[in-house]
Each structure stands twice: as C-alpha cells, then as structure tokens.
C-alpha cells in the first residue's frame, strides 16, 4: 500500500519528475491510468532532453562556426606530436585539408622551417619543464604550395594529474601582411629619419650661412679669417676645452669669447668676465677666488669669487698675461682640478667652469722672461685661436665702417647716407693699431663731426700708413723693424696728448681709447709711457 501511494503520488506537486521513471513495483500490475500517466511523464522528460541536446548542438555549431570563421587556425596535437584536430581555418591558412594532415607529425609535413621545428620542440620542452601551460611565439610556416607565411602561435598544453602531456592546443594567426606592413613602416621611418637628419644638417648649414650674412650676431665681418675663426669656435664650443684667444688689443677677443659661450651648452648659465689687467694685483686673488669674513683686516663680509659665480658657466680671463706669478699656481689648480680655496678658508670648493682666456701679450715671450708659468701656458694653450689684426682682414673694414656709421648715426641723431670712396679707401689702408676698438672710436667721432648726409672724418686717418710702418703678423712682431708695441705706444701717446694727459673721466684718454682707466695705466706702465716731467 505504501508503494502504491508513492506511485499514485508520482507527478504530484513537490515530487521530482524523475521519480516517475523509477521501476514499478513487481508486486502488482500497474493500472492503465498509471501507465498513461507514466507515458506522459516520459514524453515530457524526453522532450526536455531533446531540447537540451538541441541547445548543445546549437552551441557546438556556433563554436565550430566561430572556430572555422575566426582568423585563427586551430590545431591540436597528441602527446606524440601527431595532429588530432585541424580546423577549417587551418585548411584555409596552410592549404592542407584535415584528411591530409590527421595523424601526421609536424615533421612529416613540410610545414615549418627546419630551424623553427627545433624551436617548436624547444618551446614544448620548455613549457613542460617549467610547467607553464601556454606560450606565444612567432614562426615562419610553409603552405602546402611551398609559399612562406609568418604566423603568431598561441600554444597551451593539457597535462594529466601526474604532469604528463596529454595534448597540445595551438592557434595560429597569419601575420604575414602585418609583418610586411611593419617592415614597410620601419623602412618608411628610416627614410623619414634620414630626411630629417638631412634637413637638420641643411638647416644648420643655412643657419650658419644666415649668420655669416648677418655677421654672426654682433660679430661683423665676412673675411675668410673671420669665417674660419667662427668655424673653429663652433668646433670647440660644445666641449669643455679651455680656449686661449690671442690677438692685438681691440681685435675682438672679448666678443669672440662671448660668442663661444653662446654657442656652447652653457649659454643659459653665467658668462663671467674678468679683466685681469684692470684689477689691482692685491685684489685679483679675492676677486677670482673670494674670501672669508675676517680673512684679513678690513674684510668684514664674505666675498664670493668670480670662479664661484661662474659655476656651471664660463669664466673669461681677459688679459691673462697680467696675472701675477704668485697667483698663477692657484689658477693652474682650478684649471687642473676644478678646485680652489677662498682666502682665509681651508675648505676646498669644487666648481665646474669652462675657462676662456685671452691675451694680447706674447705668452711665450713672457715665459722666457720668467713672467709666466710654462705649465699654466700649456694648460691654457690647448685650443689656441688667433684673432688677426684688422689690417690683415681689410675686407671687413667696409662692413664694420657701415655698421658703426649706421649705429652712431642713430644714437647721435644724424642722417649719414654716403661714405665717400676716398674716405673708405683711407680707412682700408690705415694700419689700425687699436684695431676694431679704434675704428669704433674714429667712426663715432666722424659721425659727430659730419654735418650733412656725407661722412667726414674728424682726424687725419693716414697718420700711420699701412705700407710704411706697421705690418703685423700673427706673432705680433712687425715686418718693418718697428714693433706693434711702438705703434701702440704712439697711439696711446696721441690720445694722452689730445686729452692733456688726463686718463680718467669723460674727456680722458681711457675713454677715447675705450679702455678701463686701470687697463690704460697698466699699458702705459708696460710700454714705459710717462707724462713728461714725471720721474
Ligand atoms: N668683428 C667685430 N664686429 C663687431 N664689433 C667688434 C668686432 N670685433 C671687435 N668689435 C668691437 O670692438 C671692441 C673691442 O673688442 P674686444 O673688447 O672684444 O677686443 P679685445 O681683443 O678683447 O681687446 P683687449 O685685448 O683690449 O681687451 C668691442 O666694442 C667689440 O664689440
């Protein structure tokens, strides 16, 4: 009875439909209603299974559709590297159909490059050894027709619980076109880079050309000498090499030193100018290296020296030949070690300073006379640049004259439009012992005295004609027996006589000569110039 009640209850609410599938009790024959009911339950169950099967089939079809239509070839290998699955896309990509490859090993198909085969085996071994179950690599493969394609392979291995290989699933993507495009792109980039480099080089060249035309910023001149000087400066500018400018007074050593600094990587850092001739000998040391508070009587505050100021920048030691012997050793140490001490301090200070020096003295001559250290000279003379005197680059004179006349016409409110050829000729033939500086002064005076639109000179300019007196060569000696010092002496004497031996002030000789009064005094001392009547 109990069983009957159960059977009767089959299909009722809350009961699993599967209970209807349980065998009938063998104790009695099922009733017709029971059988009918059971058939209905079975029909219902069967329909459910069919639906599930249909759904699974649909999923499988979808999966196959995706596998076959995805741009990926799907290949499966067993643990003996025999192909056990070969998707439609694999057929499309590699050309063999599934029947041709099934059961074949990789090496039985001419499918991968010999080297790559080795690579594949290595990769599989490596995967197994490291127990990594997937990897990606790029391989060249052959198609059935022998053509070569490049494939990106995604591999994963299936291992059993003991870590033994069961199968390898691989998916391959044909990246031949991508590689070709990438190679083309790389080639195009190379070409672009080459063109860019070329353009840059042309640009630099054109900029140089423009600078040549413009006279290198503030530097005026187009003579070969100026061009080669500019070239040398540009060569040496990027390094930290010490540069020594040599040349007569007023040739432009200072202007070229500034140009060098501007052309270097230090252009945004300080350019510190030290005129060694204008500093009294007893002050040079503290000016250059600084001093501590109380270093000597009267030094009430700490003073930063010019070398510290120039840190990471450039220091320009003008008239280096004027540095007293005692200080030259200290200078040598800074150049060699980048290190010095402030006066009154035992602590060394380290600086990174590019040194440019200039001299209008013949330093070798100074060494012979025991006034300049040879070791310092060698240190300074690593990259010497000689600035020739103006009389040796006469071609620059008209350019300079025009530029200065224009400049002073503006500042003195003049309207000078013409420079008579005769005047230009005399300016070109003058020896210019004071070089560009003297030319500037002569031009300023000329502009001031010119009343109309035509330039007139304020003085007789051929007082020292080129051919009869001075001909300087690069070592500052003259060819005619008269030395440059004689010419300089004469030039200074002329200015002193003109000012009644007044050195300083607005009407002093120092201003006429565009020199610092102390520099003029140092020159006078050097050249033995004394006011008549003084001891
Ligand atoms: N090529 C040039 N173009 C324009 N100006 C120049 C040129 N050469 C020199 N000068 C000008 O001439 C003057 C003297 O030049 P600078 O002071 O550079 O000469 P220097 O050789 O250093 O002289 P010193 O040895 O007396 O110090 C400056 O006013 C400078 O601007």
When the domains are counted, the total is: 4
CATH topology description of the largest domain: Rossmann fold
CATH superfamily of the largest domain: P-loop containing nucleotide triphosphate hydrolases
Q: What's the story with the biggest beta sheet?
A: 5 strands, antiparallel
CATH architecture of the largest domain: 3-Layer(aba) Sandwich
In the predicted model, the low-confidence regions spanning at least 5 consecutive residues are 1-18, 208-216, 463-482
Structural class of the helix and strand makeup? alpha/beta
Number of helices: 19
Rounded average pLDDT: 80
Radius of gyration: 48 Å
The total strand number stands at 14
Shape: elongated
Distinct small molecules: adenosine-5'-triphosphate
Strand order of the largest sheet: 2-1-5-4-3
Strand content: 5-15%
Distance between the termini: 157 Å
Using the coordinates above, name the CATH class of the largest domain.
Answer: Alpha Beta
Helix content: 40-55%
Question: Tags for this entry?
Answer:
nucleotide-binding, single chain, ATP binding, transcription regulation, coiled coil, 4 domains, alpha/beta, disordered N terminus, Beta-Lactamase, 19 helices, 535 residues, Rossmann fold, PAS_fold, elongated, binds adenosine-5'-triphosphate, 5-stranded antiparallel beta sheet, 5-stranded parallel beta sheet
Q: How would you characterize the overall build of this protein?
A:
With 535 residues, the chain is α/β, with parallel strands linked by helices. It folds into four domains: 2-67; 70-174, 2-Layer Sandwich (Beta-Lactamase); 215-386, Rossmann fold; 392-527, Helicase, Ruva Protein, domain 3, CATH 1.10.8. It has helices spanning 2-9, 32-69, 88-94, 98-101, 114-130, 176-214, 224-236, 253-263, 281-289, 306-309, 325-337, 363-368, 374-380, 396-411, 421-429, 435-449, 484-498, 509-512, 517-527, and strands spanning 72-78, 83-86, 134-142, 148-159, 165-174, 243-246, 271-275, 290-291, 303-304, 314-318, 339-341, 348-350, 354-359, 383-386. The strands form four sheets. Strands 2-1-5-4-3 form a five-stranded antiparallel beta sheet, sandwiched between helices. A five-stranded parallel beta sheet has the order 7-10-13-6-14. β11 (339-341) and β12 (348-350) form a beta hairpin. α7 crosses α8. It is elongated and about 160 Å long. Mean pLDDT is 80; it is low at 1-18, 208-216 and 463-482. It binds adenosine-5'-triphosphate. Residues 218-221, 247, 249-255, 318, 358, 360, 436-437, 440 line the site of adenosine-5'-triphosphate. Adenosine-5'-triphosphate binds at residues 218-221, 247, 249-255, 318, 358, 360, 436-437, 440. Residues 59-131 form the PAS domain. Residues 219-448 form the Sigma-54 factor interaction domain. It holds the Pfam family HTH_8.
């Amino acid at each position: 009875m109990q069983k009957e009640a159960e059977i009767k209850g089959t299909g009722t609410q809350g009961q699993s439909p599967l209970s209807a599938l349980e065998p009938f009790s063998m104790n009695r024959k099922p009733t017709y209603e029971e059988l009918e009911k059971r058939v209905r339950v079975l029909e219902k169950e069967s329909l459910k299974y069919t639906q599930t099967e249909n759904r699974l089939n649909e999923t499988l079809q979808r999966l196959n559709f995706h596998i076959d239509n995805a741009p990926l070839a799907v290949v499966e290998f067993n643990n003996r590297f025999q192909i056990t699955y070969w998707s439609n896309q694999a057929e499309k990509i590699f050309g063999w159909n599934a029947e041709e490859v099934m059961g074949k090993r990789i090496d039985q198909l001419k499918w991968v490059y010999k080297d790559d085969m080795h690579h594949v085996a290595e990769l599989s071994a490596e995967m197994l050894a490291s127990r990594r179950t997937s990897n990606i690599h790029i391989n060249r493969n052959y198609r059935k027709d022998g053509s070569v394609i490049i494939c990106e392979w995604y591999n994963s291995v299936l291992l059993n619980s003991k870590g033994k290989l069961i199968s390898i699933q691989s998916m391959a993507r044909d990246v031949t076109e991508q590689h070709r495009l990438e190679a083309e792109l790389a080639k195009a980039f190379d070409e672009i880079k080459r063109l860019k480099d070329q353009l840059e080089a042309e640009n630099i060249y054109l900029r140089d050309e423009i600078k040549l035309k413009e006279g290198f910023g503030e530097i005026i001149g187009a003579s070969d000498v100026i061009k080669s000087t500019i070239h040398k400066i540009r060569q040496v500018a990027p390094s930290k090499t010490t540069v020594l400018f040599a040349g007569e007074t007023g040739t432009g050593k200072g202007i070229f030193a500034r140009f060098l600094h501007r052309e270097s990587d230090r252009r945004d850092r300080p350019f510190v100018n030290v005129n060694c001739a204008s500093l009294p000998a007893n002050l040079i040391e503290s000016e250059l290296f600084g001093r501590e508070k109380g270093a000597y009587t009267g030094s009430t505050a700490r003073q930063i020296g010019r070398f510290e100021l120039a840190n990471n920048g450039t220091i320009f030691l003008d008239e280096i030949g004027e540095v007293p012997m005692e200080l030259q050793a200290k200078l040598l140490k800074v150049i060699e070690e980048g290190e010095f001490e402030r006066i009154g301090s035992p602590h060394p200070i380290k600086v990174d300073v590019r040194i440019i020096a200039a001299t209008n003295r013949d330093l070798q001559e100074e060494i012979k006379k025991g006034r300049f250290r040879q070791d310092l000279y060698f240190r300074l003379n690593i990259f010497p640049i000689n600035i020739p005197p103006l009389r040796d680059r006469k071609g620059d004179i008209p350019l300079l004259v025009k530029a200065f006349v224009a400049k002073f016409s503006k500042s003195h409110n003049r309207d000078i439009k013409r420079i008579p050829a005769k005047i230009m000729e005399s300016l070109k033939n003058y020896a210019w012992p004071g070089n560009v500086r003297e030319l500037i002064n002569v031009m300023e005076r000329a502009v001031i005295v010119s009343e109309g639109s035509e330039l007139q000179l304020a003085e007789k300019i051929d007082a020292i004609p080129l051919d009869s007196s001075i001909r300087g060569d690069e070592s500052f000696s003259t060819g005619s027996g008269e030395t440059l010092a004689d010419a300089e002496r004469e030039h200074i004497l002329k200015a002193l006589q003109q000012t009644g031996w007044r050195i300083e002030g607005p009407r002093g000789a120092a201003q006429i000569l565009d020199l610092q009064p102390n520099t003029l005094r140092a020159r006078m001392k050097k050249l033995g110039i004394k006011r008549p009547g003084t001891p």
